[in-house]
Every structure is written in structure tokens, then in C-alpha cells.
Write a structure and sequence with these properties.
446 residues; mainly alpha; Proton glutamate symport protein
Length: 446
Amino acid sequence: MPVPGPRKPPMTTTTAESEQSGRPKRWYRQLWVHVLVAMAAGILLGQLDPRLGVRMQPLGDAFIKAIRMLIAPIIFCTVVHGIARMVDVARVGRVALKAIIYFEVLTTIALAIGLAAVNLWKPGRGMNVDLTHMDTSAVQAYVTHPGNGSVTQFLANIIPGTFLGAFAEGNILQVLLLSVLLAFALTQAGDRGKPVVAAIEAASRMLFSVVAIVMWAAPLGAFGAIAFTVGKFGAGSLVSLGKLLGGFYATCLIFVFGVLWPIAHWCGFSIFQLIRYIREELLIVFATTSSETVLPQLITKLENLGCEESLVGLVIPTGYSFNLDGTCLYLATTAVFLAQATNTRLDLWQQLGLLAVLLLSSKGAAGVSGAAFVVLAATIASTGTIPVASVALVLGIHRLMSEGLTPTNVIGNAVATIVVAKWEGALDEERLHAVLAGRREVAPLR
């Protein structure tokens, strides 16, 4: 049975004229330039006037909230429209299975690399932290409410309490479940469901237009987030934990270029060209420390690369819960660091057990700034080996570590989507190479 090819994102008049004229968009009008300038201004403000820099936090938080309010309906519309247009409905399950297998393999590799790196680097050795002399009041909320640790609870939480509850809470997995169920129902409805599919497509275009408007505020959000980070922490206060930060950033680079680069090369595309292609998204998540802020743009850009719409709509939202490579690196690195800092002995089997727990607890930690810290506290509480109160050691630098883990998450999910699309024969490779090489104009948000 034939499978529809990837849908080319629609072009606005401006984009069409640009392609016809062959003139690339001028550099000073590109979003990544605006974001970069805003980040530089935020760093400068945070250094010159730290108190004023800290007061810029609402700008970053407001931008994150503006994007987050659109995530659930965008996922819903994208997934429903994509699956409902599929000719072979059984293919949905096949794509999901391939994606889940890939996600589990890559996150396991990320956890293993994190554990190996922190054991070799030993950033916590010699700190000899005495928790009785530490103020742990700031982390009591995380310790008291560690979250859900069992497989049963995790699976039960995928089912929303009400249909609208999933959208109100912004739970990606719950929205994804509802989207797949409704998409199958519309497919079975046949011609009677076509008006609903058309209405959902129109709603999807409207939502992406709203995202395009909100993204004009991305430089302002990046400015506020970076100014707050630099103003609150600064460089001088990080000397004691600099070894942990430096080691973690190095581990993220090792994963991207030691794991994702060979995978990309094997699939026939350049990881460097892909990073350049999504540089705007990487700058935004670096500044805001939230992966969700770029989810709509990432969907559009991967479709524009030649990945089939229905596949992107299924793989990206799933990857935002199951393929958090950067978060896995953070959890493995930080958990063992806390054991080293508190002189808690972890033998090989205990670390392997910790890895097994992290495979579960890392799922569903996407998007929300600071969610990885909550998962860290939940994981340590569930193992009962490392003192839970020790998480106070990294509370102050969690945001700085998030500046490494969130771009890693985004790159990992972009690579995953292209890989699964190639496996499934749902990738226009000619378009992929043309867009990554800059020979074809990048379509705007639809």
C-alpha cells in the first residue's frame, strides 16, 4: 500500500519571493542573531548590575509560559492530523516501536557515559561535605514530594483524569495518548471524519501562526533569562563547583560528538550542518533552560528537512518524554557527584542499580525548567543510598547545568527523528541535504 511522501511546509509570499530571487535572508534579520545579541546584553547587565539582572527573571519566565501554553494544543493538532492522513494505520505502531527502541538504547548509552565520566573525573572527591552544617530548607519541598518512582505509577500517570485535564496540566504523554486515540477514531470514521481533520489542520496552522508571533519575543526572553543567571550566580561563586560544571559540559560534548555524530554519519548527514540549521533553537533553550520553548519550531524545521509530517508529529512529542539524553547525562553525573561529595560509597552493582532507576525516572522530565532537579531528588529518594538532603549542593548551579543538558536534549531528538524517518522510508534525502547545505530556503513557521 503506498505511503504518502513528506509534505513540504507551505511558504508565505515573502518566502516564495526569496526563493525565486535566490537572495538569502539578510543576517541581521535572522532570529538567532537577535537572540545572540540579547544574550550578550543580558550577560553584560548581569555583570555590571547583578541586582538589576536578577530582576529581569520575569522576562524569561513569561516567554517560557507563553510557549508552554501552546505546546499541548500544537501536539494534539499535529499528531491527530498526521496520523489521520496516514494510508497505512498499522504503520503508526511500527514507527512508535522503532522510536521507543532507539530512545531506550540512546538514553542507556547516555546514562552509561555519564556514570563513566563522573567516576573518572571525580568532581566531588575531597569535598567531605557534612550535611549537618548545611541549610537544606530550600530543598525540603523536593525531598518531601519526591514524585513517582514505580513503573505502575508511571504508566498510570499517562492516563489523564479528564480529557481537558491533560491540556490544563500540559502533560505531553497524556496529550499524546489522547491524540493517538482520536486520530484512530477519525481514521475509522472515514469520510465522516474528514471535516474534523480539515478543521484540526486549520487549527494547527493558526497555532503555528501564533507561535511565529510569540517568537518575536524570544530575544527578550533570552535577555531576561541570561541576565538573571549571570546576576544571581556570577563567575566568582562557582569556583567550588566549577569542576562539576566543566566536567558535565565536557560530557555533553562527548555524547554529541562521540555518539550522535557517528549515528548521523551512518545515516548520511552532517551533525555540524544540523546544529547550524537549528542554531536558533539551541540558543533559545540555552538561554531559557527549557526544551519546550522550541518544540513547535523543531517540528516545523524537521518537516522542512524532508521528514514526513505524521512521523515528526509522533516522534518529537514522544522523544520529549523518552529521549532526554542531556537529562540522563545530568542525572547520572549529579547523583554520583553527590555520593562522592558526601563520602557515600557506591560500588559497581549499586551504580548499575542507580542506572536502572534512572532509566525510568528520567522519562517525562522534559520541557519545564527545573524538572530535572525534581527527578534527581525523586531518584535519590527512591534508592535510599545517597543522602537526599545532599541535593542542596547543586540547587544553586542547576540552572547553569541546564544550559548544557537542554541543547543536548534538542540535538538528540532532532537526530532521532531523522534516523527513524530514514528507517521508515519517510525521509526525502535530497531535500535533507539541500536544506542542511543551505541550498534551499528554510520555510517559516506554517
